[in-house]
Write a structure and sequence with these properties.
Layout lengths: L2 H11 L4 H13 L2 H8 L3 H15 L15 H31 L2 E6 L8 H11 L4 E5 L12 E4 L8 E16 L13 H4 L4 E3 L8 H11 L7 E3 L3 H9 L5 E4 L10 E5 L6 E9 L5 H17 L6
Parallel strand pairs: 1-2, 1-3, 5-6
Antiparallel strand pairs: 3-9, 4-7, 4-8, 4-9
């Protein structure tokens, strides 16, 4: 049978399965049914049956019977050459299809500082995913990636001016005092003043990178003319609360942190007008993506439901 006849008649007359071609190519390459079955991770009897069915379908003997190692017939060698090309084209087509799908898929990446996760940001993200189920979302802890294009939206607490970044104040979150359960200040009724905390060791976080929320708290003390006797700087809020529980000092935290319900830590509100920390949403300057508009819309709705004034 000529090469032209075999190749030319297969598409029109035969119902070949890619699986059968893969099996045949494996046998031809391994030159052994047992090794081919192991490479394919199937048992040898089903492999032998598939090769037999392929031969029956084509009406061509592909493998010389009784040959050790396996030897292909002329028709087998011809089919092997063509099958390898077909399978390569199939893999190339699958790769192209995947790339097209990736290119057409919407993506948005969120950046955040951890302290924003104790408030309403998780609800914003949850509702966004509900409204855009087909949009891929990734999260990064540092919003410095915003200008580099590695994230699209950042949520943080540190205001700064950058001509390439547009920033929106979502709200100012009030600060509260985290105190150990044995702290004598808990005996006081009503809100605490910073003056009440002035004699206590102060625990701040994060210690890096700077500037950070820690600097907001230290600035608040300075503006009130106060200097804690000792300042412990730690990496994150859980460590800070652990030190509070151990009676190593007190800590000022955003009100949403109270949801953590840390053992041996109690919280008291502050009677200080400036004892707030901003929650700021950032995106690249000039980004007109409808996703930015949607995120702001969802945030406004969530704040309205919670009785929070947007932008204040």
């Amino acid at each position: 049978m000529s090469k032209t006849k075999l190749v030319g008649t297969i598409p029109g007359r035969y119902r070949l399965e890619l699986r059968q071609l893969r099996y045949f190519v494996a046998v031809a390459r391994e030159r052994n049914f047992t090794r081919a079955a192991e490479a394919l991770r199937i048992a040898q009897p089903p492999l032998s049956r598939q090769i037999q069915q392929l031969e029956d379908e084509l009406g061509v003997t592909l493998i010389e019977r009784g040959s050790r190692p396996v030897r292909l017939t002329n028709g087998g060698r011809l089919l092997y050459e063509q099958a390898v090309q077909v399978l390569e084209r199939v893999e190339e087509t699958k790769a192209i299809a995947r790339r097209l799908q990736e290119a057409g898929r919407q993506r948005i990446s969120f950046g955040f500082v951890p302290s924003t996760l104790y408030g309403y940001l998780p609800e914003v993200i949850r509702r966004y995913r509900g409204a855009r189920p087909g949009v891929e979302l990734t999260t990064l802890e540092q919003i410095t990636a915003l200008k580099e294009g590695r994230i699209d939206v950042g949520f943080g607490r540190i205001p700064f001016d950058d001509p390439l970044v547009e920033r929106r104040l979502l709200r100012n979150e009030r600060l509260i005092a985290a105190l150990p359960t044995g702290q004598s200040l808990l005996a006081q009724t009503g809100r605490l003043r910073l003056d009440d905390l002035a004699a206590e060791p102060l625990i701040v976080y994060p210690n890096a990178p700077r500037p950070s929320y820690a600097d907001q708290v230290l600035t608040l003390y300075r503006e009130h003319g106060l200097k804690p006797p000792v300042v412990h700087e730690v990496r994150e809020v859980q460590t800070a609360l652990g030190l509070v529980a151990a009676e190593a000092g007190v800590c000022l935290v955003p009100a949403s942190v109270e949801r953590l319900n840390r053992d041996n830590v109690l919280y008291r509100p502050l009677d200080e007008e400036k004892a707030v920390s901003p929650i700021i949403m950032s995106n690249r300057k000039g980004d007109k993506s409808p996703e930015i508009t949607l995120i702001l819309k969802l945030t406004r709705e969530i704040y309205r439901k919670a009785g929070i004034t947007f932008g204040q």
